[in-house]
Amino acid sequence: MSATAEASQGNPALHEDRLDYTPTARSVTLARRRAARLVTAWGYADRAGEVALLVSELATNALLHGSLRGRLFRVHLSLTATALRIEVTDPRGERLPGIRAAESDECYGRGLLVVDGIADRWGVEPHTVGKTVFAELALSPPGTPRGPHRLGADPSPARKAG
Predict the structure, then answer these.
(1) What is the pLDDT of residue 92?
(2) Which of 24, 93, 102, 114 has a CA positioned 20 to 30 A from the CA of residue 143?
């Protein structure tokens, strides 16, 4: 489901950002940094690292497998009350991504494994021209603790023995 379709189903975008990038390695760095800054400004600084990594992996895939000379790729971030969605759109719709087993001596081939391990949901939306690869992180309100917690546990890393 696209962010637009999600918004029309009663979960409107609270914040959105779209920017087109030239298909160069420098663009991946710029997109990653921009995404981390935006997510922090939107109140989810604790998710900025995950978002930066997802943007980096998806943008790198667009650069390596989805770019065409003279055509841009787009990074679209949207924040709703329940999810943060990262979309990367490129012009190569005939090259759909999929998880594969990379050989131990390969430098590439693990990006979607990383995406699959971090994102709560990810997928591909084909278009008439091109495709969008998306990853979503489920969100709870800012300041809500994440991860396992025990009632009455001391949150400090080192407790002093009495």
Answers:
(1) 84
(2) 114
pLDDT at 111 over 90: no
Burial class (CB within 10 angstroms; exposed 0-12, middle 13-18, buried 19+) of 10: exposed
Going through the chain in order, the beta strands assigned E by DSSP cover: 15-21, 73-79, 83-90, 121-126, 131-138
Q: Are strands 73-79 and 83-90 parallel, antiparallel or unpaired?
A: antiparallel
Q: What is the pTM of this model?
A: 0.77
Considering only CA atoms, which of 3, 69, 47 is closest in space to residue 139? 47
Is the pLDDT score of 9 beyond 70?
no
Structure tokens at 157: 């890393």
The phi-psi region of residue 7 (left if phi > 0; otherwise alpha if psi is between -120 and 50; otherwise beta) is alpha
Instruction: Identify whether the C-beta of residue 49 lies closer than 8 Å to the C-beta of residue 69.
Output: no
Q: How many CB atoms lie within 10 A of CB 134?
A: 23
Residues in the chain: 162
Greater pLDDT, 3 or 72: 72
Give pLDDT tens digits for 70-84: 889 999 999 999 999
